[in-house]
Specification:
Radius of gyration: 23 Å
CATH architecture: Orthogonal Bundle
CATH class: Mainly Alpha
Structural class: mainly alpha
Order of helices and strands: HHHHHHHHHHHHH
Distance between the termini: 50 Å
Shape: elongated
Length: about 300
């Protein structure tokens, strides 16, 4: 009987959470636009095999066929259908965005908590390392890591790009979380827990960690946006995903010459537009979450 009551209570709580999330999305127009656009791209990635009319590396048309009823976005030099490559390219973009963000979160947040809470030599060492990475030009660091991880065969290209991007943004989470922990550990409820004999691990798990999650949630969309743009930058330099794998950044790189852009504008228009839409949708979501979870910072920035 008690088990049934607990199950029904948890279901009610879960329903309330979903209702609050949906109401928050409905009340914020920019967030609604961002979630809607991101949702479409996620659906494209999940159901690419059913949506795309051809494979991303199938030679189905002639050289540089313009957009028509058979090839909605035209074809490439090798006769690849651009529309199909756009659909499949969403998978690579989202894989890199999500995986790099998860890696950066899983390292930056725990290190920030440890550094901010324990202080001392650990704090000085971790802060020095984070500041060193943070001060280094992010794209140059990503280029260096991508070269070493992929060219020397340490990781496959997609994994190498994801790791390279995540390393760049670990200091961002570290600095934000460390600053939050330095404030939280001096709060009255943390001091009270400490005076009542609560151990360090208990304080970190029950009182510190939950209170820093809000600030990290607001960073995630911006981290994903930077991951997508960094991947596009690496691809444009010839260090990203290798052909014939469908990747928006590589397709932009492949159509980079001015002659191609003028003669066959669809080659760069559609992949470039998808990079913009995905980055723009994540930026809208990030702004809305920042206003929600960091209202004081947003007010100081004039929002």
């Amino acid at each position: 009987m008690d088990l049934k009551i607990q199950e029904s209570t948890s279901l009610v709580d879960l329903k309330r959470i979903f209702q609050r999330v949906f109401s928050f999305i409905r009340e914020n127009k920019s967030l609604s636009v961002g979630v809607f656009t991101l949702g479409i791209i996620i659906i494209m990635a999940l159901f690419a095999d059913w949506i795309a009319p051809y494979g991303y590396a199938d030679r189905v048309g002639g050289r540089y066929d313009p957009p028509n009823q058979d090839y909605l976005f035209g074809t490439t030099l090798l006769g690849y259908d651009v529309f199909s490559r756009i659909i499949y390219g969403s998978q690579v973009a989202l894989i890199i965005a999500f995986s790099s963000t998860i890696l950066a979160l899983s390292l930056g947040v725990p290190l920030g908590i440890i550094s901010g809470y324990f202080g001392g030599k650990i704090d000085r060492l971790l802060t020095l390392i984070a500041d060193s990475i943070y001060s280094f030009p992010s794209l140059l660091l990503a280029i260096t890591l991508a070269i070493y991880l992929s060219v020397f065969g340490i990781l496959k290209v997609v994994a190498a790009v994801a790791v390279a991007v995540s390393v760049v943004y670990i200091p961002t989470y570290f600095r934000v979380v460390r600053g939050q922990v330095l404030q939280i550990k001096e709060e009255g409820y943390v001091r009270a827990a400490r005076s009542m004999g609560a151990g360090r691990l208990t304080i970190l798990i029950r009182y510190v960690a939950p209170n820093v999650l809000a600030s990290t949630i607001a960073i995630i969309p911006f981290n994903m946006t930077d991951a997508i743009l960094t991947n596009a930058g690496l691809a444009f330099l010839g260090l990203g995903i290798t052909p014939p794998t469908a990747d928006w950044g590589y397709d932009v790189y492949d159509a980079r010459s001015l002659v191609k852009v003028r003669a066959y504008p669809w080659l760069i228009l559609f992949p470039g537009l998808m990079i913009f839409l995905l980055s723009f949708s994540l930026s809208l979501i990030g702004d809305a979450l920042n206003d929600k979870f960091n209202p004081i910072i947003s007010q100081k920035n004039g929002k």
